[in-house]
Amino acid sequence: MKKRDLVRLLEKNGWYFKRSGSNHDLYTNGDRCEAIPRHSEIKEGLAQSIIKRLGL
Questions:
Q1: How many CB atoms lie within 10 A of CB 50?
Q2: Total Cβ atoms within 10 A of residue 39
Q3: What is the pLDDT of residues 1-56, one digit of tens each?
Q4: Nearest-CA neighbor of 34 among 22, 44, 45, 19?
Q5: Which of 9, 23, 24, 40 could form a disulfide with 35 if both were Cys (CB 3.0 to 4.6 A apart)?
């Protein structure tokens, strides 16, 4: 999955960019925080686990 597609899905569901870490970008919805790898292509299994963990 492309990183930009995952970020669009997060932003569509109320998540927003909080800050950059060393290898990850942190997104938050105000209560929770999720680290998204800064690769242009995210492995499908990782993307699906992030989506499942966030309940999207």
A1: 20
A2: 12
A3: 999 999 999 999 999 999 998 899 999 999 999 999 999 999 999 999 999 999 98
A4: 19
A5: 24
Q: Are 10 and 51 in contact (CB under 8 A)?
A: no
Alpha helices per DSSP H over 1-56: 3-12, 44-54
Residue 8's pLDDT is what?
Answer: 96
Residue 39, helix vs strand vs coil: coil
- Estimate to the nearest angstrom the gap between the alpha carbon of 18 and the chain centroid: 11
Contacts by 45-48, CB closer than 8 A, 24 or more apart: 47/1, 47/6
Task: Report pLDDT for 54.
Answer: 92
